[in-house]
Design goal:
This protein is mostly beta strands and 218 residues long. Helix content is 10%, strand content 27%. A hairpin with a 6-residue loop joins strand 1 (38-42) and strand 2. It is globular and about 50 Å long.
Length: 218
């Protein structure tokens, strides 16, 4: 009977939080603060860690560590914080280079995220349905915005994009109905050279792209 109950609980938890973030949904001490315990896993190289979740899914603010067990933390795993609906603020430190697919998918209370310039890779659907997020700055080293990255971010008003960007994925900003400002650190020519996939700006607000040599209207 206990085994059947445990299996049922695992199935429910996996459905709510995603397979990779299951470990983050266990019991923990209280603490809606930045010192809550994060869960780490060794990368394949055995020389670094990735964050795969957090022990307290009711936490509101988190600051990721740049080191764990004497080794660097270099990435955020797929679905690491998926469906953590209480999360409001995230700080990603130097040393982390990649954010996995759906890492913050459906974090519906997330309003602020600070991403270090060490990040060079952001996966697909990373901020899908983060409908409280109002602004974000993409680090200079990122060259592509993945498919559906900001889809359904209904409160997103402003995004800062680096001049190194070469592609924007399908439906990346679809249904960002409040989007009014895209701040681009390059020229109009550089903006026009970016590969933009199908539906990247469907159902958005009437945004203006602010380039270094002038503005471009939607």
């Amino acid at each position: 009977m206990k085994r059947k109950l445990l299996i049922a609980l695992i199935a429910i938890t996996a459905t709510l939080c995603g397979a990779l973030s299951f470990a983050a949904c266990g019991d923990s001490d209280s603490g809606n603060h930045s010192t809550i315990n994060l869960i780490y896993e060794l990368n394949e190289d055995k020389q670094s860690y990735r964050v795969i979740g957090m022990e307290d899914t009711t936490a509101t603010d988190i600051i990721l560590a740049s080191e764990y067990n004497g080794l660097p933390v270099t990435s955020i795993g797929e679905e690491a914080f998926c469906c953590c609906i209480s999360l409001t603020s995230v700080s990603i430190p130097d040393g982390i280079t990649s954010i996995g697919d759906r890492a913050f998918d459906s974090c519906s209370s997330l309003t602020r995220i600070t991403i270090s310039n060490s990040v060079t890779s952001i996966g697909e659907e990373v901020f899908y349905d983060c409908d409280s997020l109002t602004s974000i700055t993409i680090p200079d080293g990122v060259t592509s915005i993945g498919n559906w990255s900001f889809e359904h971010c209904n409160s997103l008003k402003s995004i800062t994009i680096p001049h190194n960007l070469t592609s924007i994925g399908s439906c990346a900003f679809n249904k960002c109905s409040s989007l009014t400002d895209i701040k681009f650190s390059g020229t109009k020519e550089q903006w026009n050279a970016i590969k933009k996939d199908y539906g990247w700006n469907d159902n958005t607000g009437d945004y203006t792209i602010h380039c270094t040599d002038g503005d471009i209207a939607k």
